[in-house]
Amino acid sequence: VCGGLVLWIDKQQHSKDSVFFRDGVRRIDFVLSYVDDKDGERKQERRKVYEANLEKVGLELEIEDKSESEDGKTSFVKIHAPWEVLATYADVLKIKVPFKVNDIPDNSEMPMNWLSTPFRLPEHIMHPEPDFFTAPFNKSKSDFFLIDNKDTFFPPSTRNRIVYYILSRCSYFRDECGDKDKKGIKRLLNNSTYTAAFPLHDSRYWKRSRDANCESERFSLYKHWAGFLSFFKEQPLNLVRKYYGEKIGIYFAWLGFYTEMLLFAAIVGTICFIYGFLTYDDNEWSKEICSEAVGGKIVMCPLCDKKCGYWKLNSTCNSSWQSHLFDNVGTVFFAIFMGIWVTLFLEFWKRRQARLEYEWDLVDFEEEQQQLQLRPEYETKCTNRKMNRITQEMEPYLPITSKCARTCLSGATVLFWISLIIACIIGVIAYRLAVYAAFASIMKDSPTTHLQVVGPFITPQLATSVTASCINFVIIMILNLMYERVAVWITDMEIPKTHLEYENKLTVKMFLFQFVNYYSSCFYVAFFKGKFVGYPGDYAYMFGSKLRNEECDPGGCLIELTTQLVIVMTGKQVWGNIQEALVPWLMNWWGSRKARSHPESLYSRWEQDHDLQGFGQLGLFYEYLEMVIQFGFITLFVASFPLAPLMALINNIIEVRVDAWKLTTQFRRPVAAKAHSIGAWQEILNGMAVLSVVTNAFIVAFTSDMIPRLVYMYAYQPEGEMNMKGYINNSLSVFNISAIPPANKPEDGENPFWFNSSITTCRYRDYRYPPGHEKEYSHTMQFWHILAAKLAFIIIMEHVVFLVKFFVAWMIPDVPSDVRARVKRERYLVQEYLHNYEVEKLKVQLSQNTHDECSCAPMIYPSLPKHEVLSECL
Question: Which residues cross the membrane (predicted)?
Answer without folding.
Answer: 251-278, 329-349, 414-442, 462-483, 631-654, 684-703, 791-812
